[in-house]
Amino acid sequence: MTDNPIFAVAAKAEALRAQGADVITLAAGEPQAASSAVVVEAAVAAVRDPATHHYGTAQGDPALRALVATVVSGGTGLPWSAGDVQIALGAKHALFLTVQALMDAGDEVLVAAPGWPGHAEVVTAADGVAVPVAADDEFRISAEALDRCRTPRTRAVILSSPGNPTGAVYPESRLRQIADWAQQHGIWVINDDIYRAFDYTGTYWSILRVAPQLRGRTVVVGGVSKEHAMTGWRIGWLAAPPEIIASARLHVSRTITHVPTVNQRAALAALGDTRTPVEAASCYRRRRALLVDALNGIDGIDCPLPDGGMFAFPDVSGLLRDRGWSSSADLATWLLDTAHLAVVPGEAFNAPGRIRVCFAVDDDTLITAIERLQTALGPAEQESAVRQTEETR
Length: 393
Description:
By secondary structure, the protein is of the alpha/beta class. The chain has helices at 5-18, 37-47, 62-76, 90-102, 117-125, 143-149, 172-185, 207-210, 242-254, 261-271, 275-296, 317-323, 328-339, 363-377, 385-391; strands at residues 24-25, 85-88, 108-113, 129-134, 154-160, 188-192, 218-223, 236-239, 311-312, 341-342, 344-345, 355-358.
């Protein structure tokens, strides 16, 4: 049994740091920024409130569930109530609660390839079988590709838009085709909305806004971790039909009892703060362009501009061929050891020949990281145009 390969990269980077190395990590699937003062102050107030010192409800704080329902209603264009929401220990836990409610042992869930390994991991944890579905050249799966992978044991498809690591956003037309396919074959749709706030093209659609008739067979998963820089607080949710909520609530009651109340109070404050996600998206949009331009300036790298999310996902196969590395994993190891720069190899996402590079870091960190890339992989005499650009910005 192996752990998530992204965690392995992070662990090696931390080990080098412990030895005194100045390591820059562009491998994390999280914002570098701290949680906002609004969140921290709400948590401090919650700690001082004796009501948070005792057991809470398995389904989650009613006020938080009501606010989540409002958020999901706005995204899907359909009415949701607090009773339709289950609070979880992060979006990954919400995904697990969903698939364990839907499947018997050996049932199958279709996941995009390339895609985030956590989608397959939660299916495996629920005794299911994750079936990779090959995406097209724009990193989107299609109804045709899904149908080629469908078997009598197929129960659901996990759909993530914007995607991780690709940043792909599904247009309305593709979502409509997938919705028609799912309805025709009685397949559940698990809509992973965790990167919803980071759509740089204005083309994001919830599948339920496109196909409201799927309401009875769709689960919407979300959380505060990415858009509010709260990965460590572990607050996610699922909005779903009653039978899925009932199963999820029972699982939480039998295992963790409930999600920590203080953390739920912090999430409640976060969802009331609409400014932080907008400001983060604006910064990420600019840093996305900066990183992609720099990557495309290195011979052997071809980096598409991601539609959304927090990552660039360049094709480095030309670099591997020209420099003699056998895999993107070898390249990632070399960058960490030589340039003290951590990125995630594409093998972690079922995409050999690529690397994932996070741009959800501050300007100085990103600029220094780009300079290290240019020094390590570009011409030795190359001066950093990035630094010059930033100094005159």
